Amino acid sequence: MSRQKLIRHLAAVAEIMVQGGRSETTRTCGNPNCACHSDPARRHGPHLYLTYRSEGKSRSLYVPPERAAAMKKAQAAWARFWELGCELATLNRQQLEREWKRDKRQADAGPRRNRGRVGD
Description:
Elements: H1 3-14, E1 21-27, E2 44-54, E3 57-63, H2 68-108
Antiparallel strand pairs: 1-2, 2-3
Helix pairs in contact: 1-2
């Protein structure tokens, strides 16, 4: 893919991307008479969370069921952003390598000096 096309795709997915993981958990509620307290199979959930790190700490954000699809789409956008970014970084590295080799060839082919040969 061309550099410009990669950049356009990066910009498109950057609009909705969210970095983070997904976790599901079940919980017991605050009602001590609820069946969730005596039977682990009857715990409430699963509840979906977006997990991430911020300021050196693990954090989680509850994802309401009606937002689950949007969250999954945002995570997929992050994964695509990462792939595209790596592809662009590879192209950039290859370009740097070509430029450095060209600069070295030009430096090596610079003006020839008299290297002490007799008669020159």
